[in-house]
Sequence to fold (289 residues):
Amino acid sequence: MSATPIELVEVGPRDGLQNEVKTIATETKIELVNSLSRCGFRRIETGSFVSPRWVPQMAGSGDVFKRISRHQDIQYSALVPNLIGLEKAIEAGVDEIAIFVSVSEGFSRANLNASIGESLDTISAVIRRARDHDLRTRGYLSCVVACPYDGVTDPKSVAELAKNLISLGCEEISLGDTIGAGTPLTVGRMLEAVLKILPPSQIAGHFHDTGGSAMANILAAIDYGVRMFDTSIAGLGGCPFAPGASGNAATENVHAALSSAGWNTGLDENELQWAARQAKKMVKNSLEK
Fold:
């Protein structure tokens, strides 16, 4: 009997790099995406069409999308904040978009300079426009366990907002522990609330490793039936608007842990290690400039 599949969604080229201070060349980003494309991923979050004034590292995303060596069986996605970003994403030829909203009003104000309600109005228009272009939409929820500004997040608020995003047209919801404050206990409480409203097939876990609990939280989520997780090659990244939230769960480490536990990620171990070395070298070189 083959091992049960777990999908890892690679977010390194976007979430992993957006927080890097020194500019990384477009050509280097292209090389990273091309190496990740050989690993066996079904989806790679390749860039973001946010304002370069807010996230300068993502300024060249359009060029990255146009110049990568695409694989037909991979969806190359982009994060978009508004209709302007969506039009740029469409022009660049993205396969899927992601939108984001915070469960916390404090984080929403810091990240988007808008209330949760205002954010929902914006992304509703984005989703409708994306549908006109047959683009699948993924929804990100941030601060699903705790917020750096508002403290502990109510699990019921997470569930209600997840349901709202699905009703607006999102195909799935990625639940983000943005500051890495989650534990198996608090993640479990949050998932219990969400799973009363949505099936596990519409949920992904996005766990930052700031507190060192990302892998434990992934395993806890698996116990609740979740079979999709966002990871970043070499553990790169975090959120520039969440102080101290560096370090996504490292793709190669999550793959190794799951594989040893009998799960099947469908990823190539050798190609993953190559991509991880490339990612570490890329960041090291940028720091030395």
